[in-house]
């Protein structure tokens, strides 16, 4: 099965890179020093600093490997350079209205940047898939766990630039 493309905005890629660098160049070396110090204190089986340090090092290494893999697979897409700003594509901020005229504003971003509470939804989410390619005035149906819901596209915006 083919992996789907890991789209990400330049800002999202920068955040991944910053977290990677903070762990790799900052937290990990300090932790290695603590582990070395704790190991020099003798019996490691009853040394909490040593045991905690090793456990935390494994967690950091897993996160570093995950971030490295995600950055390697990432396809950085700058929404400001979108040629067709009249349609909903990756990086668009979309104002939607449901059947009860409740408005919802969402920005379509990569999986690594999604934060539904902040209005950033994954490009691969059901709502994002439903509104892809839509123009202002289009009504799209979305199958949600609670049933099918219709949304009308009220406005489409992209970051300035391009």
From TrEMBL:
Native source organism of the sequence: Allosphingosinicella ginsenosidimutans
**Lineage of the source organism?**
Bacteria, Pseudomonadati, Pseudomonadota, Alphaproteobacteria, Sphingomonadales
User: What is the name attached to this protein's record?
Assistant: Transcription elongation factor GreB
Q: Which family does it belong to?
A: Belongs to the GreA/GreB family. GreB subfamily.
Q: Which UniProt keywords apply?
A: DNA-binding, Elongation factor, Protein biosynthesis, Transcription, Transcription regulation
Record's Gene3D superfamilies?
Transcription elongation factor, GreA/GreB, C-terminal domain, Transcription elongation factor, GreA/GreB, N-terminal domain
Q: Transcription elongation factor GreA/GreB C-terminal domain location, by residue?
A: 85-158
Share an example GO biological-process annotation for this protein. DNA-templated transcription elongation
**Among its keywords, does the record have Membrane?**
no
